[in-house]
Structures are given as C-alpha cells and as structure tokens.
Amino acid sequence: MASKVLYACDQQFGAAYKALGVPAPVREVVHGVSPIGYEKQIPALLPPVAIPLWSTLSGVVICEWRHWFNERKPVIVRFYPESGLAVEWARSYEQFGYLILQNVLESQAELSPEVEEVAGHLGIADLNAVFAMWEKLGDHSSAFVTHESFVEDLPQSCFDEDMSGYRGDFPVFTATAGAPLDSTCSFEVHRRFSAGMPVLDVRDRVRGTEDAPPWLTPAPTSARCSTRCSQMATWRAPG
To answer: Is residue 1 in a domain?
Structure first.
C-alpha cells in the first residue's frame, strides 16, 4: 500500500455519491458509523470507471464500478491497485449492505450493540438470520447464495473457480474462454487470484485476439514514445 494519501473520498466524491444514487445509509455507515474503521483516505490513482467508497488497510479500494459508455449495470468491486485488477463484490447496494454487515460481524465476533447499530442504519431487518449464517459459514460472500437479496442475481464473489452459474454482466475469463471485449476494460481481464497471486495470463491471449479493441491492445513502446514526442512537440510549438 502506498504511504502517500492522495485524497479523502468523502470530501472529493460527496456530490457524486448523491448524484449517482449511492444510498445515504451506506455512506453514513462506511464513512462514520461502522466500528471497523473503513479508511476514507485513498492512496492510489483510480481509473474513471471507479468511484471509491473506502480503502482497506491492505490497500484494496472498494468502489462503485460504473461504465459510462455502455449499458452494463453499475456494481460494487474490490479494486487492487498494485495488480490493476477489479473483482465484482456485489451487484446492488442492497447486497452491499449485507456484505458490510458481514464484515462488521467478523470484526466484532458477536451480536454486539455495534452490529445492531449498523444493521439498523442499513435497514436490515433479518439480523438474527444473518448472524446465524455468519456463525455457520463465516465471512465469505457465498454465505448469502440462498438469501433473497442475492439468489436471483449472485455476484462473482459468491463463486469459487466454477463460474458457470453466474448470470451477471461483469466479464468472466477462463483459461480458454472470455467475455465480450467491446464492453470490457483492461482491469477486468483476469482470472482472479490463485494462492494469493493475480492470474493475468489471459491478458496476453486477449492482446493477441484479432477483434481486441484498441484499449486492450497497448501500442509497442516505440510507438508510445513516438506519440508522446509528437504531443510534446505540438505543445511546445509557438503560436
């Protein structure tokens, strides 16, 4: 995690949260009520698709992931700046609220007043059922696969390696298959993690695909340098 803080997300994105419909209870919990201490300080530059909500102590940034120029549904992701990798965590703010509550339960390890306060802020009425699921299954998102807020639209975080049951539109890449490239950005081209390391082998495969869009096919270094030199020459030209 970078040591330099670039900005505080609640200060920089307050108006954006309201304009884009980030629920006020979610903002209140992650920026003030939660006993976990979600970090409002963002230590990394983010792509335009990412609207940061908080960062973790390990440097992962929790974001609304919103593609501005296609019809994909905005979702919540865990963005790993060091790997340039985004993983879908929730497909709605309702699901997101339950995952936040699960985080708080894991932190408190009991049905504490703090947990009850967070549930109240988020409007979660089935706290006892969530607590029972947490006791039995822990803090993995898959604990919610049968929950009414998840079952019809499971996020990728509910799946392990077998993604065949996933019905959402966040890109899925396997060793031999991939997603529609014209609606995919480079941060989504991966096979998640294995043994704690990002699996990025599919990026080379995508770059070699004839129909790969330009943003997934980086220009050779010499071409990038030539373009940059041309831009600098234009900028320096008089008149």
So the answer is: no
